[in-house]
Amino acid sequence: MSNQKLFNVAVVGATGAVGEQIIGLLEKRNFPIAELKLLSSARSAGTKITFKGQEHTVEEATPDSFKGVEIALFSAGGDVTKVLAPHAIQHGAVCIDNTNAFRMDPETPLVVPEVNIDKVSEHKGLIANPNCSTIQMVAALKPLYDRYGISRVIVSTYQAVSGAGSRAIDELHRQTREVLAGNEVTPEILPVGALPVKHQIAFNAIPQIDKFTENGYTLEEMKMVRETKKIMGDESIDVTATCVRIPVVNGHSESVYVELKNDYELEDIAKLLQDAPGITLVDDPAGQQYPLASEATGKPDVFVGRLRRDLGSSRGLNMWIVSDNLLKGAAWNAVQIAEYIAIGQK
Amino acid sequence: MSNQKLFNVAVVGATGAVGEQIIGLLEKRNFPIAELKLLSSARSAGTKITFKGQEHTVEEATPDSFKGVEIALFSAGGDVTKVLAPHAIQHGAVCIDNTNAFRMDPETPLVVPEVNIDKVSEHKGLIANPNCSTIQMVAALKPLYDRYGISRVIVSTYQAVSGAGSRAIDELHRQTREVLAGNEVTPEILPVGALPVKHQIAFNAIPQIDKFTENGYTLEEMKMVRETKKIMGDESIDVTATCVRIPVVNGHSESVYVELKNDYELEDIAKLLQDAPGITLVDDPAGQQYPLASEATGKPDVFVGRLRRDLGSSRGLNMWIVSDNLLKGAAWNAVQIAEYIAIGQK
User: Fold this and answer.
1) A153 vs chain B: nearest CA distance in angstroms?
2) Which among A49, A138, A301, B236 counts the fewest CB atoms within 10 Å?
3) Sequence-ordered list of residues with C-beta below 8 angstroms from that of B164, at least 6 positions apart, any chain
4) Same structural domain for residues B105 and B155?
5) Would you call B182 an interface residue with chain A, using a CB distance cutoff of 8 Å?
6) In a domain? residue A174
């Protein structure tokens, strides 16, 4: 990336789990940065963060923070994006938003670089980063869609607590210790911090992520339904989802049933995935090798395995998709978009 | 059960996790027992077990152990059933086998009392208890099948380690402590004790239960496919399964997508399940109530919730099915069959 134009970059939510990953990736990828602004809520302002050997002080994000900023990466909650992104855009920045605030806004591109990077050019100042569970699924579906077409997707997720923030990670650890010690646990955070009823996550499986919507699906499930159609650019794909939180710290797993529009050869599916950008195929039943959350953590790729044909429908295909929900599911996808904006390549 | 004929009952595998549950249920249900024989391998023989306040000594199971036995409950592995059940039958016993040895044998009824108790009468000395993950699913599917017909089932499981035996429970606890202490873990048992490759189960999701078969599905997945068709008595039902072990000690959860043969009303599905024997409906999204493994453990019922219509297909239905895999998934289902044989009612 030498001899490149350098950019003034802001990270909003710099002290959060995703913000930290974004800053780490900007450093690791040697992103062409002129000035880096680390922004947060008033509460976290003053935090010191080292970037490329230099100490930065996190500042409170305000409408005036974005003067001169050219690329702003938001991951501080939907309300923060709604309030501050218009100011950033007014100051000339392109915003990449990791929240749910604008994902379904028809004016806002919803981008997974491996699927629809071309949509970036349609932005009006803001590009939305999809939900973590959607990103890893559509990245794996795209090569199959292009070759065979997809009529329906039925997905059940096995989601890590890191997707619910650092307090949920603390809760899983705390509850696990209590159960091992033979004590009662008192759930405080999960399934949804803002809702009154709490359930034990240690040694349990909770079939609720985010609030329930009127049709009986949770918001997380509806995100998978709606975002998949928008990112794939095909409203005709039927998607149904069951989203479940399990006692894993980091790394989402997904059991995905896909119905293709045309007959397929399993070997060809494997080859398509092997050749696809951002995908690592791990599929060796004889060697007991398949994607695992424990192996995916810390890696940018989407891992796919357990490929097998539905025994009842010749166009049905089962697959197991695993990825680091904080990386490809959030920070890495956002930085990929930023790199495309900055240097015109994914 | 007073004034009933009393039976000589043998429990083979009396010191195992399922055997212990069977003995507990025989006591709790006040099963009409004349003499109780507790049998095991030579290694566990001599173990003392208290039944109704009386100490019993576990004896080594041999071909001669079954003299006078009228009902024999086997849960000591398929090889033990294959060797000893013929002797038990020769001595006049009816065998209820909890292993995989004879489940798909065309001569052997495969029974879930809520679904096909009538098949018991066709036995030729042996009745097979289905696989845990199948039992809880078909119990919930049966009332829907009877009313609407079922064309296909797509299931993803969230299975507890207790299904892999007490050594797997110990391994989950041990690994969890190691991870919390920041140490490396050395997997020794899971995913399959008899296979060479081991994976971490603590804070992970392993998409392998039992060995792989030639078609890329695991044996556990193929059990769900084949047993469901046999128990429901309908080979036309398409079933596909993804079976996953998660860090839960006890209680299997299942995300089940069902395609019915006819249009349905969601309220009617709820009512059917509410009225069905052995089913408890827990389905209150507004109150954040749904079945949980932590709540199902220790209870005989199959818990069903998260009922919602597929958004793409009007005959598609999603549900979340949870049950204690050692109880309804094994011991309780076997004791239900024994009760039917002994006193002619389920």
Assistant:
1) 10
2) B236
3) B189, B190, B193, B209, B245
4) no
5) no
6) yes
A89 and chain B: CB distance < 8 Å anywhere? no
Same domain, yes or no: A204 and A306: yes
User: Closest residue of B to A290, CA-based?
Assistant: B207
Asked whether residue A100 is marked as a ligand-binding residue, the answer is no
Q: Over the stretch A208-262, which tens digit does the pLDDT of each residue have?
A: 999 999 999 999 999 999 999 999 999 999 999 999 999 999 999 999 999 999 9
Domain range for B336: 7-130+330-343
Token pair for residue A288? 């007991």
* CA quadruple B289, B292, B294, B298: dihedral sign: positive
CATH of the domain at A54: 3.40.50.720
Does ipTM top 0.95? yes
The pLDDT, as a whole number, for residue B344 is 83
pLDDT over 60 at B54, yes or no: yes
Question: How does residue B159 score in pLDDT terms, banded at 50, 70 and 90?
Answer: very high
Chain A: nearest CA to B330, how far in angstroms? 20
Determine if residue A162 is labeled as part of a ligand binding site.
Answer: yes
For A153, the token pair is 């997707």
Question: Given this model, what pLDDT does residue B4 score?
Answer: 79
Q: Is the pLDDT of residue B204 over 50?
A: yes
User: Which residues of A are part of the catalytic machinery?
Assistant: 132, 252
The DSSP-derived string for B134-146 is HHHHHHHHHHHHH
B170: CATH? 3.30.360.10
Given a cut of 80, whether residue A146 has pLDDT beyond it is yes
Facing residue for B205 by CB, picked from A173, A253, A287? A253
The answer as to whether B243 is a domain residue is yes
Residue B311 and residue A154: Cβ atoms within 8 Å? Answer: no
Residue A1 pLDDT > 90, yes or no?
no
**B108 and B138 housed in the same domain:** no
The secondary structure element, H or E, covering residue B280 is strand B279-281
Q: pLDDT tens digits for A51-69?
A: 999 999 999 999 999 999 9
Cis amide leading into A207 (omega within 30): no
In a domain, residue B1? The reply is no
What's the domain count of chain A? 2
Do A185 and A304 belong to one domain? yes
3-state secondary structure chain A: CCCCCCEEEEEECCCCHHHHHHHHHHHHCCCCEEEEEEEECCCCCCCEEEECCEEEECEECCHHHHCCCCEEEECCCHHHHHHHHHHHHHCCCEEEECCCCCCCCCCCCECCHHHHHHHHHHCCCEEECCCHHHHHHHHHHHHHHHHHCEEEEEEEEEECHHHHCHHHHHHHHHHHHHHHCCCCCCCCCCCCCCCCCCCCCCCCCECCCCCECCCCCEHHHHHHHHHHHHHHCCCCCEEEEECCECCCCCCEEEEEEEEECCCCCHHHHHHHHHHCCCEEECCECCCCECCCHHHHCCCCCEEEEEEEECCCCCCEEEEEEEECCCHHHHHHHHHHHHHHHHHCCC
The reported pLDDT for the residue numbered A342 is 96
Q: For B39-69, b where at least 16 C-beta lie within 10 A, e where not — what string? A: bbbeebbeeebebeeeebebbebeeebbeeb
Residue A17 covered by a domain: yes
Residue range A176-185: average pLDDT?
Answer: 97
Euclidean distance between CA atoms B25 and B4, whole angstroms = 18
Mean pLDDT of A280-302: 98
Instruction: For residues A30 and A144, state if they share a domain.
Output: no
Same domain (yes/no): B235, B223: yes
Please check whether residues B312 and B339 belong to one and the same domain.
no
> Residues of B annotated in the binding site, as ranges?
15-18, 43-44, 103, 159, 162-163, 245, 325
Cα B23 to Cα A20, A288, B155, B325, B335, distances in angstroms:
54, 36, 32, 16, 9
Same domain, A90 and A21: yes
